[in-house]
Specification:
461 residues, alpha+beta, BirA Bifunctional Protein, domain 2, Herpes Virus-1, Rossmann fold, 15 helices, 34% helix, globular, binds adenosine-5'-triphosphate
């Protein structure tokens, strides 16, 4: 049974076990910022690693990149972010709460109205006609709607003036477009091929929230897949399905996912197809992964603004053209939330009639894969620590000797460790250990010399 937990329960779980802590807590906190503790960073790294393997390292079509967070500021003029990366903002005059007008409408209509991309007059009209009230204080006294640019601005060097304004990147994608020529030349890739990147992005969101779902600092895993014009919609379908299978491969239940195909009339002017993969978060279905067919818009813009040709020379036809791009773009933190939400369960243990918290997470991405537990600390600690050291180089292992063995098993169940290796009296005599399986609680006796292979097989299986 998947426990349908509230977001608050999920956040409490994350704090209790060391996945996520509120940011800058000892100074009273920094609103909507989060730090990832020992288990959180391990899970995040495992998610990034799995994405990297699927989309880059083990994918013969694609290569990787790690570009700068700070890019030439003309990048953001060319990409349209300086003029267009704006959200409609309004304030409640009574309680001073601030909202995104489109989200206010979407919440008020319980998701039946999609106000994304509406003009200020359309938004204003809707709010007036439907007499929308402030969700915080209940008053109907909003300021006018104004546009607010989401990019974090700073200055490069010591002089703060317009000339050296620089932005923290709001997406990783543009670094890929800037390097398209370099990568194509050095990797000698032929179309179709992709460039993947994982990295931090920053957006000065008006209404961050829902735990780590919407934050001002987050990480993206993005692929820009370059195709021959005319073939892009086939590749769009290909990456949609690839992405869906990636999520299911991580253990996410298929009926917790939904595709939202943007209607033709609502597409951004440069896109000829866009789909969001929605996940059923505790508050309802919401965007997990954006997949867009972006035509040649980005390369064309950078070519125009930089004066550098970004055309691809087809070695067979000798034709020069700008490739069309498919972009699957996924937030690490949203995936983190979805994976935890899907895996966190509570179940009855028949033998003891007790409830246990169980993180039924895929073995490959579990924060720890194996826990080494001495049955009696005084007698079995030394041997256990040696075993722990040996296993550390082979699997993600953790050592725990605090509290009775039953409680230690429960703790490992709750953080998703698939295997507990217990060292007991017989270990020293017979040179064997007990391996307990997280989901079934079945215990196997395994000779120590076979333990590494045994665990390897189980983790692969
Ligand atoms: P939303 O509509 O939720 O604001 P978006 O459509 O602006 O998202 P994109 O620009 O398509 O998002 O970004 C691609 C992906 O990056 C999103 O699908 C999401 O997983 C992630 N992402 C975007 N903004 C944030 C944020 N503020 N916090 C965490 N993740 C984010």
């Amino acid at each position: 049974m998947i426990l349908s937990q509230t977001l608050e329960q999920l956040a409490n779980y994350c704090k209790q076990y060391g996945f996520v802590f509120p940011g800058s807590e000892i100074y009273g906190g920094l609103a909507n910022s989060w730090d990832y503790g020992p288990l959180g960073v391990q899970l995040k790294n495992n998610l990034k690693q799995t994405w990297w393997e699927s989309f880059v390292a083990n994918n013969p079509m694609n290569v990787g990149l790690d570009s700068g967070i700070l890019l030439h500021s003309d990048t953001w003029v060319a990409s349209g972010h300086v003029n267009g990366f704006q959200d409609p903002l309004l304030d409640c005059r009574v309680c001073k709460s601030r909202f995104r007008a489109d989200k206010l409408i979407e919440t008020h209509s319980k998701g039946t109205v999609d106000a994304d991309g509406w003009s200020i007059s359309e938004l204003t009209e809707y709010i007036q006609i439907h007499k929308l009230k402030c969700p915080v204080c209940g008053n109907m006294d909003f300021t006018e709607i104004r546009k607010f640019n989401l990019m974090f601005e700073t200055h490069m060097g010591v002089i703060e003036d317009q000339k050296n304004t620089i932005y923290l990147r709001p997406e990783t994608a543009q670094g890929i477009f800037l390097n398209f020529k370099n990568i194509q030349r050095t990797s000698r890739k032929k179309l179709p091929f992709g460039i993947g990147q994982i990295g931090k992005a920053f957006r000065n969101e008006i209404t961050p929230g829902n735990f780590v779902f919407r934050t001002r600092e987050f990480e993206q895993m993005e692929l820009e897949f370059f195709t021959v014009p005319g073939t892009e919609l086939d590749w769009f379908a290909y990456w949609k399905d690839f992405s869906r299978r990636f999520l299911i491969g991580l253990g996410i239940q298929e009926d917790h996912l939904k595709f939202y195909d943007h209607p033709q009339e609502k597409l951004s002017f440069y896109s000829n197809a866009t789909t969001d993969i929605l996940y059923q978060f505790p508050w309802g279905f919401d965007e997990l992964w954006g997949i867009a067919s972006r035509t040649d818009y980005d390369l064309k813009q950078h070519q125009k603004h930089s004066g550098e040709s970004l055309e691809y020379l087809d070695p067979e036809t000798n034709e020069k053209f700008l490739p069309y791009v498919i972009e699957p773009s996924l937030g690490v933190e949203r995936l983190f939330l979805a994976v935890l939400n899907d895996a966190l369960t509570e179940e009855m243990v028949p033998a003891t009639n007790e409830m246990r918290t169980l993180l039924k997470i895929d073995k490959r991405i579990a924060p720890y894969q194996v826990a080494i537990l001495p049955l009696i600390k005084k007698q079995h600690q030394e041997f256990s620590l040696d075993l722990y050291q040996t296993l550390l180089s082979k699997v993600n292992a953790v050592y725990d000797d605090t509290g009775n063995i039953g409680r230690r098993y429960r703790r490992q169940d709750a953080i998703g460790t698939p295997f507990c290796v217990t060292v007991d009296g017989a270990t020293l005599e017979e040179k064997s250990v007990t391996v307990r399986h997280r989901d079934t609680m079945v215990q196997d006796r395994v000779p120590i010399r076979e333990l590494a292979d045994y665990l390897n097989d189980q983790l692969k299986g």
